[in-house]
């Protein structure tokens, strides 16, 4: 990654000419600027500032000005796309590119305009200090602000919004707008152990390619228990497998992947985020499929459903019965552990299916639904009858390759919702 100094003034281009015929002053007049700055300059705390509705009206005026200006700037066709946004889930960057593609829905436009309106608010807070210096100073500040917005000639650039955790990589990413309204994604890192050390910023490269991930779990007994989670009295199971060390951000695909890998590697069980889909395990001739069926096709097509999951917790968890028993005994001791295990089994808050004793491979993707963009090279994995496939389970190794552009992910060539 290329490090950048966001606090160094950009000197490569001193041209402050507008990018197009669009001018910020067309949407935000000197009178509006002066009124807002003077209102903010009132020597009052929030409780004394008067009618909060009046204050909100000033802020809405700023939002409206920036919203209309940005929409006009996009319509003028002078802005660049933000690169390397694929599968990252960065709201501002995705909305910016959608606007370049012609999307003018209120949500998209607001997502772009609101952070920039906050920057305008900051400029007004600076300007309020000029309000006591007379009209000449106010005009100067107003003209400078309009020139900056019209040309994108910001002295230090703009860091837009707060960092978001990238869905594909787990990095802290935000958008940096350079001189001339040229946006780019940057990664933010702490410069040292203390918040006082500040941050460093680096340009991000292309999003890493998607891949099918494999984890392997032991199946010594061949009896696999299935639930959203295993709820022992006193939270025994959670106390064993969860700690501060595996506090992954499950709001991102990257974090969910790391959590699934951690459970398999450290504790020998499978747990995959499936959303609120109540999936089932479907038996095929040489593999099982963990998926959410649309219920439209017979078992001869989808496979026989051998277990199902009620997703009060939006995860599907699979563990060999003997692995679970040993885990609880190690935690509680032979007598208490066996008793806790027996009580859990007697309660029956799970379903089960069987495989040959040995081990089980699970193939999944970090981001929901992405498995449909791969084809299995080892055996036929049909997705017909499923609106989401979360994982493929197999006792033999499988290999995968990305689908070619336009390739039907259903090997039969039929739509997954088409009846035979």
Question: Gist?
Answer:
This protein is an alpha+beta fold and 420 residues long. The chain has helices spanning 30-40, 52-75, 91-100, 106-127, 135-151, 236-241, 253-267, 299-302, 321-332, 334-347, and strands at 3-4, 158-165, 172-178, 182-190, 199-203, 213-219, 223-227, 270-273, 280-283, 288-293, 304-308, 315-320, 351-354, 358-364, 374-376, 386-394, 400-402.
Describe the structure.
By secondary structure, the chain is of the alpha+beta class. The protein has helices spanning 30-40, 52-75, 91-100, 106-127, 135-151, 236-241, 253-267, 299-302, 321-332, 334-347, and strands at 3-4, 158-165, 172-178, 182-190, 199-203, 213-219, 223-227, 270-273, 280-283, 288-293, 304-308, 315-320, 351-354, 358-364, 374-376, 386-394, 400-402. A hairpin with a 3-residue loop joins β3 and β4. The two termini are 51 Å apart. Residues 9-14 and 412-420 have low confidence and may be disordered.
Helix content: 25-40%
User: What is the alpha-carbon Rg in Å?
Assistant: 28 Å
Specify the biggest β-sheet. 6 strands, antiparallel
The residue-averaged pLDDT reads: 85
- The unreliable regions are 9-14, 412-420
Total count of strands: 17
Order of helices and strands: EHHHHHEEEEEEHHEEEHEEHHEEEEE
What portion of residues belong to β-strands? 15-25%
Discrete helix count: 10
- How are the strands ordered across the major sheet? 6-14-16-10-9-11
Q: Judging from the principal axes of the Cα atoms, what is the shape?
A: elongated
Structural class computed from helices and strand pairing: alpha+beta
Query: Oligomeric status of the shown chains?
Result: single chain
């Amino acid at each position: 990654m290329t490090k950048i100094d966001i606090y160094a003034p950009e000197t490569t281009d001193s041209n402050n000419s507008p990018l197009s015929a669009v001018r910020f002053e067309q949407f935000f007049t000197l009178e509006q600027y002066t009124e807002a700055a003077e209102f903010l300059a009132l020597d009052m705390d929030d409780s004394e500032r008067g009618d909060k509705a009046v204050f909100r009206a000033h802020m809405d005026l700023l939002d409206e000005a920036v919203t209309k200006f940005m929409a006009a700037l996009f319509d003028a066709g002078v802005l660049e796309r933000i690169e390397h946004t694929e599968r990252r889930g960065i709201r501002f960057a995705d909305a910016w590119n959608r606007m370049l593609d012609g999307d003018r829905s209120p949500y998209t436009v607001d997502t772009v305009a609101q952070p920039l309106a906050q920057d305008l608010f900051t400029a007004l807070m600076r300007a309020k200090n000029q309000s006591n210096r007379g009209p000449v100073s106010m005009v100067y500040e107003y003209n400078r602000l309009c020139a900056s917005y019209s040309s994108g000639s910001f002295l230090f650039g703009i860091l837009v919004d707060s960092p978001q955790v990238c869905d594909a990589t787990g990095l802290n990413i935000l958008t940096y707008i350079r001189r001339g309204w040229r946006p780019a994604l940057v990664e933010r890192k702490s410069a040292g152990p203390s918040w006082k050390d500040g941050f460093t910023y680096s340009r991000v490269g292309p999003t890493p390619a998607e891949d099918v991930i494999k984890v392997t779990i032991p199946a010594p007994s061949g009896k696999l228990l299935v639930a959203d989670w295993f709820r022992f009295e006193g939270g025994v199971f959670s106390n064993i497998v969860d700690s501060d060390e595996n506090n992954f951000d499950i709001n991102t695909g990257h974090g969910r992947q790391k959590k699934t890998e951690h459970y398999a590697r450290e504790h020998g069980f499978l747990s995959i985020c499936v959303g609120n889909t109540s999936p089932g395990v479907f038996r095929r001739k040489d593999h099982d499929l963990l998926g959410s069926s649309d219920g439209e096709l017979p078992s001869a097509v989808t496979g026989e459903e051998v277990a199902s999951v009620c997703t009060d917790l939006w995860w599907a968890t699979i563990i060999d019965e003997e692995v679970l028993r040993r885990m609880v005994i190690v935690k509680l001791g032979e007598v208490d552990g066996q008793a806790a295990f027996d009580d859990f089994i007697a309660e029956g808050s799970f379903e089960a299916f069987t495989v040959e004793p040995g081990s089980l491979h699970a193939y999944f993707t970090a981001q929901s639904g992405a498995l449909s963009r791969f084809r299995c090279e080892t055996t036929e994995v049909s997705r017909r009858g499923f609106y989401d496939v979360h994982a493929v389970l197999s006792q033999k190794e499988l290999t995968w390759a990305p689908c070619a552009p336009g390739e039907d992910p259903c090997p039969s060539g039929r739509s997954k919702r088409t009846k035979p």
